[in-house]
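Annual report, structural modelling task.

Input specification for the alpha-D-galactopyranose complex:
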Amino acid sequence: MAGNVPVTQSLDDIYPQDALDIQRKRWSKLLSSFKDAYGRPAEFVSRSPGRVNLIGEHIDYSLYEVIPMAVTADVLLAVAVSPANGTPTVRIANVQSDKFATRSFTLAQDGGVDIDAKSHEWTNYFKSGLRGATELLKKHAVKGIGQLNIDILADGTVPAGGGLSSSAAFVCASALAVMRAHGQETVDKKELVELAVVSERAVGVNSGGMDQAASVFSQRGSALYVGFQPELSARTIEFPQTHTPLTFVIAQSFVAADKHVTAPVCYNLRVVECTLAARVLASICGLKDLPDDSSPLGFSLRSFHDSYFKKKGAVGDDVKDFRSQLDQLVHIVDNYLPQEEGYTRQQISDLIGTSVDELEKRYMTKFPVRADTFKLRQRAMHVFGEAVRVLKFMDLLQSPTPSNEQESEELLKGLGGLLNDTQESCRDVYECSCPELDELCKLARSAGAYGSRLTGAGWGGCSVHLVPQAKVEAVKKAWEEKYYKKHFPDMDAEKLQDAIVVSKPGSGSTLFQVAGRESL
Ligand code: GLA
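The model returned the following structure:
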């Protein structure tokens, strides 16, 4: 999957056939609004999509593999650049100017920009992409950093706080725009993902790399298998041919899940819990002086996993070995992390052999968390169990093409069962679901879905469902009548229509050359 971000002049390369009409109108409007706003045409559009995660929830920051895919909804940034004869300035506006106010800010001479991570300001995502891209430009010794004025008009269709990773789409599109603004027409996908992951952490969330990888690497029609250890990697996975095509339906809970707002008690707390579980397990198993890894806090359950079996002399490259290792790790957690009620800071410090002060400084300062106890047992159990489910899901996707309807049905039920198991673990063990998401899943299953679960960070946001094509209407109807109309009686038809999306896997980041083009 290595290679450069594709550059195109045709929307056919970006969107599926049935989306083209709507997209042409949207893009034309964006480009003409750009001209109205800035008095000059846009030169290029940088585009990055949202994603839906099929399986592998909350394990990317523990460096385990995940299987997401891009959706059609995306972020577009129309851009024009000119030399800054004075202080370099960025002007940035949004087509939804009532929701996202127009801003302008200046850059330091070295291209740097201040980000106030405490304020929930939409342009922070642009700034974080800009900051990351600037670092990369410096690494490549590109000339002209801090010498440009950049005008931008943004148009995003990934719902903010809706669980489809609008933030990663925005940061990836921003970083790509800044690279291109500095004349970089070839942008390496892996470098873009890596910089976007680090950049997004600058706006207050310790996220893993799944969203950015899905946004950049995805290819139309396929899911993505993303790995993080020993380094970031991604490959496409074709869906098997089944008698009824695999259909994933995405349903919004409309419970706002802004992971930046709730980070200290939700997302960032889980990152700390997983890291501390890894530290405690390593310490109990006598693993000392382990090097830092690429996870947000520098040590992950995956690094514990690898070091533990390396010490035992196991190789573990084989998938079967790997799965049996994960099963063994579940037993280790069961034996060595028995406290259902969680562990206090003092208990964890004693187990690791450090002081509470040191513990807080090392793991809870960059991103503060609020908790008296840390549920190490449950979090580690979820991570190892979910890593096994990803392997099983992958096995099923790669199994021989079913030769009859019954085999097809078994395959689909197998995939659906794994989605259901993930939901159960997210709800009961990892505690990242919410009653509304549970309800959507229950309703879908009763109306015929093979499997249903939350997708993304959880605590609201979105859910994903594997549904037989013939049952899609029944599932939609169940949600409309028993969920949306019940919880949101005032919801208008347009919002209701946006609530449910039958999503085909979409394409990843793209640079679109506008210059010289009369029409789209
Ligand atoms: C968010 C993060 C991802 C991932 C998911 C949970 O979307 O940004 O990195 O951790 O939550 O799987």
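The mean pLDDT is 94.
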